[in-house]
Design brief:
This protein has 157 residues and is an alpha+beta fold. It contains 4 helices and 10 strands; from the N terminus they run E-E-H-E-E-H-E-E-H-E-E-E-H-E.
């Protein structure tokens, strides 16, 4: 078990829309929509599921959109121990001082491909395939303690 306190809130990430953009400026086309650049010309637009029709008109011939949130889970890790938890069965140095607010990394934790996004000094969002949620939740429950993990009831169905 890790020594530092950490809380983990796990819920579906149904609000994520994939944007592949082969021309144009992402800032001009997407405006203030929060996004993660996950590949050189690919972004995850967060909270964009209700704006997909408007976005499709704006993107037009510059790229393509696809809702992908139905297959994703977002785990929000908070507290002093979030970095230690990611180091437990992880393949990424989450304790590197350069991994700060706004940083994004792709890695593996306990055989599961994840995207890590630092959201604050004591918080990080972890995105991963919904099919792996039971395995990762079990792993984190063992590492952080069963009371550290809160699972949204939508995942229990």
């Amino acid at each position: 078990m890790i020594d530092e306190a950490v809380q983990i809130a796990v819920a579906p990430a149904g609000d994520v829309v994939l944007l592949d953009l082969w021309s144009g400026d992402v800032d001009a086309l997407c405006g203030d929509i929060p996004r993660l650049q996950v590949e050189p010309r690919r972004w995850w637009l967060l909270g964009a599921e209700d704006r997909i029709e408007t976005l499709a008109q704006q993107i037009a011939n510059h790229g393509a959109l696809a809702p992908i949130g139905g297959g994703l889970v977002r785990a929000t890790l908070s507290g002093a121990g979030w970095r230690s938890l990611l180091m437990n069965a992880g393949l990424f140095d989450a304790e590197d001082p350069a991994f700060t607010n706004g940083s994004l990394a792709s890695s593996m934790i306990h055989h599961i491909a994840v995207r890590l996004v630092v959201t604050g000094d004591q918080s990080c969002d972890v995105y991963f395939a919904a099919s792996y949620a039971p395995a990762l939740i079990d792993h984190w429950s063992r590492a952080a303690g069963p009371h550290a993990v809160a699972v949204n009831e939508a995942l229990a169905r």
